[in-house]
Design brief:
Shape: globular
Number of strands: 2
Order of helices and strands: HHHHHEE
Strand order of the largest sheet: 1-2
Distance between the termini: 22 Å
Largest sheet: 2 strands, antiparallel
Strand content: 5-15%
Structural class: mainly alpha
Number of domains: 1
Number of helices: 5
Helix content: 55-70%
Length: about 100
């Protein structure tokens, strides 16, 4: 992985302690922690990431609570991560779900 890709992964990884701390206080936040954990584990298990891999990442992501941190993840962190690997992301206007363009 190149430096930009590592930075994008690290930016997403910063959300783990955020959701972990909230899940200790309120169990409804545990799924948020688990989703970020699963996405990062999946990404780190790959030597190369393909469009299908990022479609899998987005399918993991889609099932979450819509809090303010998720807005940041949806609008900035996941698209940034996907773009540094050479893919473009769109948001379906009707469903507001992310998808890989192309």
């Amino acid at each position: 992985m190149n430096e930009r890709q590592i930075i994008a992964i690290n930016n997403l990884e910063k959300y783990l302690p955020y959701f972990k701390n909230f899940s200790n206080e309120n169990k409804r936040f545990y799924p948020e922690y688990d989703i970020i954990f699963r996405i990062l584990k999946f990404i780190k298990s790959k030597t190369e990431l393909t469009q299908l891999d990022f479609e899998e990442v987005l399918s993991i992501y889609q099932d979450h609570y819509d809090g303010s941190a998720w807005f940041d993840i949806k609008e900035f962190r996941l698209p940034q991560l996907i773009r540094v690997f050479g893919y473009e992301v769109g948001i379906d206007e009707k469903t507001q779900k992310l998808y890989i363009k192309g």
